Amino acid sequence: MSLGEYFESMKGIGVLATSDSEGNVDTAIYSRPYVIDDNTVAFSMLERLSYANIQSNPKAAYMFIERGEGYAGKRLYLTMTGEEKDPERITDIKKQHVRARDDDGKVRHLIYFSVDRTRPLVGDKT
After folding, report:
1. pTM value?
2. pLDDT for 21-56, tens place per residue?
3. Residue 106 lies in a domain
4. In a domain, 9, yes or no
5. Which element (helix H / strand E) includes 48?
6. Would the CA dihedral through 42, 46, 50, 52 be positive or negative?
């Protein structure tokens, strides 16, 4: 199953981990990524700590925990590859998520990441 098919069909909760250039780690609840292709995902970010961290350290990890019994999901190891600041493009891509919030006037950035590695939520299969 491709990443796009996976994130279209699964419900759950996501956590994005970032760190600054000093290695100070932060975690934040994030929605499912926007899957651009099998090697690229994007997240809409406000100008908060995750965004600041990714500006100084391009590496991040995303953990998605599927809703339901047990522990199933995915871990994505990511490297930032670009940023989109065009509000219209961000609004368009946000329409991919059914529960996307209306425009609240806040400055958003669409951050693109290459998917360096994918692992299951539990276990160490590579």
Report:
1. 0.87
2. 999 999 999 999 999 998 999 999 999 999 999 999
3. yes
4. yes
5. none
6. positive
